[in-house]
């Protein structure tokens, strides 16, 4: 029997949902019948419109979509102006103030505190600049991810941007495939670093080469069934398929999308993700059915992959290659791109607008987003680099961050998410400053990947970090407080591995001390040149657990109260929140 949400989607989903959102926006949120709100808000997600967490019932988040993180000239400015004009909440965030944009781990952007009545105007302003929210949420093909410098990378192995654009327009644009069993992620890696992280996507293309008719050709191998969340992460499995040109790559991915669309589990949502589908069917059966029913050419066996060269979030020494896109890097045409570090991926609206102006002044105006919540300024001539790097905004969002800021990712948390158990963004921003000021890192270590997810859904990709944090709750001194599980040793690369969870339910005010003890042990005990991931593998998790000592420090731990029970972590009191929520 299909789930309740499947029944709702079967009645109305996809592009038709927009008309209903506009209708409700004209009448006001109160026009949505109370007993039908779950149904409508489930459908709204297709157009990237999410009701915020309990207690914020009149406010919405909007997620945008831009394949491969590409923002054409003017688009970031339009997004910043929308944030400035429409994304102001009733309570300021103590770290970030009011009106901002959040950069995500899928190379896209989220806006918060939108009111339903303003959604049509927001769409009008964004779409005038070519920005869309279509298919940005719900049970859809989500934002297509890839190498953010595709077409510009000096060392690109396989051209991927035309294929990414085709997936965006022809595959994600197909309303007949809009109602998937669950959300579905597609990635394409065309570079040697592996920055699209194909191993944690539902279907991923990775660069490969194969001898065909006596000639070595480049193309892609295909992997399926990767994903994170619910403490049941999976590495994408090799489908033993090589595709040597854009048309065949498109057809194979489309074939797997259609196969999963038709045969994926629609009865039990907890088992509906493609990683469980691949578990149950196996890659051989999927490949056979693809050949028989979904593609009209003979599938070739996998080619020689280049996974041994992957360095992006791979826990390898920096001498092996880039582990992110921060810093100044030469493009294939002799210009440069400059990757900036935005702490926890949050840009104020004014900073976003200023960044768009800087992108215009010094480069082509194009801005690209990475899977590590950071922006890249593209196409900067060498003679303009010094002036660009001297801009005051680049002192705040620097291309040369300290190792803690450089490596940290944080999800939305209880500020807006109904699933999260802890506040994430503001706490992490404070923790980064404390770690910077109190913990020494070896001179040859430029990054430590610390990822914080407010719950086990793992939107912050904690499973893939050097140090992963999951939001939890725990008792301390007779009170329920925010807490975290701590894991170590995750990473992507040639052999993806997920963290081993070594501490559970540590009160949030003791977590910075635990991280400090881990990093200090790493600094003292590592072999010369050894990365954190390599050190964890060498020491073993039993020994590393002993080094991880939770303790209170002089870190000022804000928001220790159980924010899950409040309408907003930073509201002064419930009386104020009740008045604010009902005032609309």
UniProtKB/TrEMBL annotation:
Keyword Ribonucleoprotein among UniProt keywords: no
Domain spans labelled Nitrite/Sulfite reductase ferredoxin-like: 56-91, 95-129, 329-392
Pfam families for the chain: NIR_SIR (PF01077), NIR_SIR_ferr (PF03460)
Domain Nitrite/sulphite reductase 4Fe-4S: 138-294, 406-547
Keywords: 4Fe-4S, Heme, Iron, Iron-sulfur, Metal-binding, Oxidoreductase
Any GO molecular function: 4 iron, 4 sulfur cluster binding
Superkingdom per UniProt: Archaea
4Fe-4S recorded as keyword: yes
InterPro entries associated with the record: NIR_SIR_4Fe-4S, NiRdtase/SiRdtase_haem-b_fer, Nit/Sulf_reduc_fer-like_dom_sf, NO2/SO3_Rdtase_4Fe4S_dom, NO2/SO3_Rdtase_4Fe4S_sf, NO2/SO3_Rdtase_FeS/sirohaem_BS
Family recorded in the similarity comment: Belongs to the nitrite and sulfite reductase 4Fe-4S domain family.
Listed name of the protein: Ferredoxin--nitrite reductase
Organism of origin: Haloferax marisrubri
